[in-house]
Each structure stands twice: as structure tokens, then as C-alpha cells.
Specification:
- This protein is α/β, with parallel strands linked by helices.
- It folds into two domains: about 180 residues, Rossmann fold, CATH 3.40.50; about 70 residues, Arc Repressor Mutant, subunit A, CATH 1.10.10.10.
- About 50% of the residues lie in helices and about 15% in strands.
- α10 crosses α12 and α10 crosses α13.
- The longest helix is centred in the C-terminal third of the chain and has 15 residues.
- It is elongated.
């Protein structure tokens, strides 16, 4: 049952599969940053703000989230401009943000929030199938993308995962973002995204570092885990970026998910 069925009473629908491997329900979770210090000290409710121009959507989400003991809806808004005011008033942990809204849309709100010192993490919850908007939202700092056809339990799970510092993408959005991150040369040659950009194979050490990046390790943490210096980690990352033709850790983490490197590391 979809989250909208809580209000509309409809049934059916297709099941969303987590992860990017067809036929497997593996999660595509990319750690973004560690949870806040206050969150680590003691359990507390995740404070959520809902932003959507349709009241029935906000009502359905509120009813869904009110069933969870660890989540509290602390505010609502019907457009991006109102959302900025509500964030200022409530300082939420997570913002569920629609893209298509009158007045100020989700992308514009994201651009404004880039300059906000608050640590609110943002999940795009949208019916839009515009992959360019998804990629733009990721580059503007959103922590997850959830399409409105998603099962209710996955919406709840995405909130918890993003709150803990991870990036949330399901199979549909992960594949789309991977394709959009591919260079024009890759797309024209019919290659498979970043796989076509590899200039030389990664060494075993480099693959280990890629896996740790996808799991959210910072340079210092990787150095301690691998018994090497932090500068050596930086040197490895420089070589990896050059070999793969990528420019940042988000793209590297997406590459790791696409290649399954994060799963290989977890099994070791």
C-alpha cells in the first residue's frame, strides 16, 4: 500500500526495489556525513517538516509518519518560500521537499538553503520524472530522492537513513542519476556510464578506498582503518579521481554503488 492510500483508500501499484541491481532488494545508501553530536548522545525524535502544495499529500504523509515513535512532524508548508520560514522557526532535522510548487519551487528553495548554516537534511519527494532535476537537486545538496510511487515503509526508512547521515536513492533514481553523471562522450559512445571513463584499472588498495568512501568514511578514519597516513589516503583519492575521470566524493560513491564495491568491502 502506498503512502497516498492512507488518505485516498486506493490499492495496488508497483513495488519499488531498493538498490541498483535488478531483481535484488539491496539498498543504494551513500553515507553523506556523520549524525550530529546531539543525536549520538541519546535517542530523540527525528523532527520533520513537510513541503508540498497539495494538502492531501501533506495529510497522507503526516498520518504515515505519526505512526512512527521516533519521528515527529513539526511543521508544514505549501511552497518553497513558506518552507524557508518554517525551517527558521522549527529547525527540523529532515525536510521532505516537493519539486513542482507555485511561488517558489523546490530547486529554488534548495539553492537558497545552500547558504543556510542549519544542518537540516533534505529529501526530495516528487512525482517528477525529470532526471535533470534529480541531478540538479543532488548537486545542490539534497540527501535523497524519493518518488511518490514509493512504498510507505521506504519513505519512513529514507528519513531515518538520511537523518543518520546517508544518502538515499532507490533503484530507479540511482540508475537515472548515474546516467546523468556520465559524460557526453560516454553517452554518445553507448558506454555504460562511468565504467567507460576508467583510464586504467584500480588497484586493490584503491578499490578498498572507493568502498570506504561509499560507506561514509572520512580521510582520517580511512587512514586509521588502513594503517596508513592521511596524506597517503589523499594521494590515493587523487589517483582514483584521475583514473575514473570524476571530480568529487559523491560521484565516486555513486560509482562504488554502481560497481557493487561497497558490498564487496562489507563482506570482507
Amino acid at each position: 500500500m502506498k503512502w497516498s492510500e492512507l488518505v485516498l483508500g486506493t490499492g495496488g501499484g508497483t513495488k519499488m526495489i531498493e538498490g541498483i541491481t535488478t531483481g535484488n532488494e539491496t539498498e543504494a545508501l551513500l553515507p553523506l556525513e556523520a549524525p550530529t553530536e546531539s543525536a549520538a548522545k541519546e535517542p530523540q525524535k527525528i523532527r520533520v517538516v513537510l513541503v508540498d502544495d497539495h494538502p492531501i499529500v501533506r495529510e497522507g504523509l503526516r498520518k504515515l509518519l505519526e505512526l512512527e515513535d521516533d519521528i515527529s512532524v513539526v511543521g508544514e508548508a505549501e511552497n518553497g518560500r513558506q518552507a524557508l520560514d518554517v525551517i527558521e522557526e522549527t529547525n527540523p532535522d529532515v525536510l521532505l521537499l516537493d519539486l513542482k510548487m507555485p511561488g517558489m519551487d523546490g530547486i529554488t528553495a534548495l539553492q537558497t538553503l545552500q547558504h543556510n548554516p542549519r544542518k537540516t537534511r533534505i529529501i526530495i519527494l516528487t512525482a517528477s520524472e525529470d532526471k535533470n532535476e534529480w541531478v540538479q537537486a543532488m548537486k545542490l545538496g539534497c540527501s535523497g530522492i524519493v518518488v511518490k510511487q514509493t512504498q510507505p515503509d521506504l519513505i519512513v526508512k529514507s528519513i531515518r537513513k538520511v537523518y543518520s547521515g546517508e544518502i538515499w536513492l532507490d533503484s530507479h533514481t540511482t540508475a537515472a542519476v548515474m546516467r546523468q553523471f556520465a559524460s557526453p562522450q560516454d553517452q554518445m559512445s553507448g558506454g555504460s556510464g562511468k565504467a567507460g571513463r576508467e583510464r586504467s584499472p584500480l588497484s586493490a588498495r584503491e578499490r578498498e578506498i572507493v568502498a570506504l568512501v561509499a560507506q561514509g568514511y572520512k580521510n582520517k578514519e580511512m587512514a586509521e582503518k588502513m594503517f596508513i597516513s592521511e596524506q597517503t589516503v589523499k594521494n590515493h583519492l587523487h589517483n582514483i579521481f584521475d583514473k575514473l575521470g570524476i571530480s568529487d566524493r559523491l560521484e565516486l560513491a555513486l560509482y562504488a554503488i554502481h560497481k557493487g564495491l561497497h558490498l564487496a568491502q562489507e563482506k570482507t
